[in-house]
Amino acid sequence: MVTRQITPNTQPAIFSAIQELTDQAKRFAFQHDFAGLKNCMNLVQQIYKTGNAAAKNAVENIFVFAFSSILPRCNQVEWQLVQSCMPTELYTLYVRQVTKVGC
User: How far is Cα 40 from Cα 46, in angstroms, rounded to an integer?
Assistant: First the structure.
């Protein structure tokens, strides 16, 4: 008899969802669709505010972390526009990440 071992998904669905939102936010930023970017960021902000620990972890470690990959592809004006789309709480998380000791 052959038994099939089922391995549980080691990545909760929230991580996949946040990765999709991160990819979409990057596309919006690179296409200069700042209205779409703002909507995406507001959605992620809501997920962060109302989500459980896994959701908060995903937002901090996937979405907010990705801001640093947007910066090198922007000039100063574009980066200011991206920043203007960030809800205060997400921007605060970003600043906290980039100013951590050892980063």
Answer: 10
Query: Tokens representing 87?
Result: 């809800």
- C-beta of residue 70 within 8 angstroms of C-beta of residue 80: no
Phi, psi dihedral angles at 6 (to 5 degrees)? -100, 125
Cα(79)–Cα(74) distance, rounded to whole angstroms? 6
For 40-87, the pLDDT digits (tens) are 999 999 999 999 999 999 999 999 999 888 888 889 999 999 999 999
Q: Tell me the HSE value of 95 on the side-chain side, using a 13 A CA sphere.
A: 8
CA of residue 99 relative to chain centroid, distance: 18
Task: Tally Cβ neighbours within 10 Å of residue 52.
Answer: 9
- For residue 8, give the DSSP letter: P
> Contact, 35 vs 23, CB < 8 A?
no
Q: In which band, very low, low, confident or very high, does the pLDDT at 7 lie, cut at 50, 70 and 90?
A: very low
The answer, yes or no, to whether residue 6 has pLDDT greater than 50, is no
